[in-house]
Target: Lipopolysaccharide transport periplasmic protein LptA
Amino acid sequence: MIYFRALTIGILLTLGAVTAQAQSTNLAFGAVKADPTIPVEVTSDTLDVNQADGSAEFKGNVLVSQGEMRLSAQRVLVIYSQERSGIDRLEATGDVVLVSGPDAAQAQRADYSIDTGIIVMTGDVLLTQGKNALTSNEMTVNLISGTAQMVGRVKTILNPENK
Model:
């Protein structure tokens, strides 16, 4: 009986450690590293430019491409640097999909900092890599290093290879 209790406590402690570690997951993202100095191309159904605050709002079937990276959404707000010499960041909302090489991620929102090559996706994030899928509350993608980190209740579905 003592052995059974010790075994049960050991299993519960192990499961607790696995759950704690599952709150954050680091992984590779995209087949090639991106170059944030490459021009950003944006297409959409409509465009509204605000000269006062230096922003441009693309709406409807928005597609943003930069090298191998593709980001689509219903709305993308482009915020220019204070000097208005270049793009500072993009804010994408509504059916956001990010594709880089064979990897794809979906979320409710994505914020892309052009200079750093960092994209933060939030809201029901789903990442698919081949037959494997991961979900979380937030995913930070570093396009330069080709890595991603998922945080906030990470769930993974791994499919073994058929031999």
